[in-house]
Amino acid sequence: MGYDVQHWIDGHEETGGGSTQPIMDPATGAEIGTLHLGDESTADRAVQVAAAAQKEWAKVSLARRTQILYRMRELMIEHTGEIAQVISREHGKTIGDATGEIARGLETLEFATAITQDLKGGFSQNVSTGVDAHTLRQPLGVTVGITPFNFPAMVPFWMHPVAIATGNAFILKPSERDPSASNIVARLYQEAGLPDGVFQVVHGGKTVVDALSSHEGVSAVSFVGSTPIAQHVHRVASAAGKRVQALGGANNHAVVMPDASIEFAASQVASGAFGSAGERCMAVPVAVTVGDAHEAFMTAIRAEATRLVVGPGDDPKTDMPPVITPEARERVIRMTDEAEQAGATIVVDGRGLVVDGHENGNFVGPTVITDLAADHPTYTEEVFGPVLVVMHVNNFDEAIELVNASPFGNGTAIFTDSGHYARRFEDEIQVGMIGINVPIPTPVGYYSFGGWNDSLFGEHHAHGPEGVSFYTRQKAVTTRWPAQNESVESSMSFPTHD
Question: What is this structure's pTM?
Answer without folding.
Answer: 0.95
